[in-house]
Amino acid sequence: MQLETNSRPTPIDDIIENFSLLEEWDDRYRYVIELGRMLRPFPEEQRTDANNVQGCVSQVWLATTIEHRDGRPFLTFAGDSDAHIVRGLVAILIALLSGRPASEISGENPLALFERLGLGEHLTPQRSNGFRSMVARTRADAAAALAEAV
Fold this sequence. Notes:
The protein has a single domain (12-149), classed as Sufe protein. Chain: A. The chain is 53% helix and 15% strand. It has helices at 12-21, 25-37, 84-97, 102-107, 110-116, 119-122, 125-149, and strands at 60-69, 72-81, 100-101. A hairpin with a 2-residue loop joins strand 1 (60-69) and strand 2 (72-81). The radius of gyration is 15 Å and the shape is globular.
């Protein structure tokens, strides 16, 4: 398994493939933590109430940047958490959604990926609920970007 440097998020296809290679949950758990360690450093000035994700037991921040290309809004996400495993979940979500058009983000189902990777059955209900809150936040940001584009 080869991990990317922290110059960019690990592509989601690589994450899915690496999960399939790891048979033991302990190895998958360590991999999720490693993904979190590879996130770009989150700027201190971005740790604001506006970027704080409500509904997470841990502190989670997601910052969204919108760029318009060919008349469509594309969203880039940056994030962080004060909990190692949650930081890894942030990394997975960013790998799945960041850099994509808002319309694709609205139609994506990160919760299905969460279950496919076996995260739902191995993480606490609080962590699962936190992930759902992160997904809701990205969807709300995508919907807002689409509404502004009209």
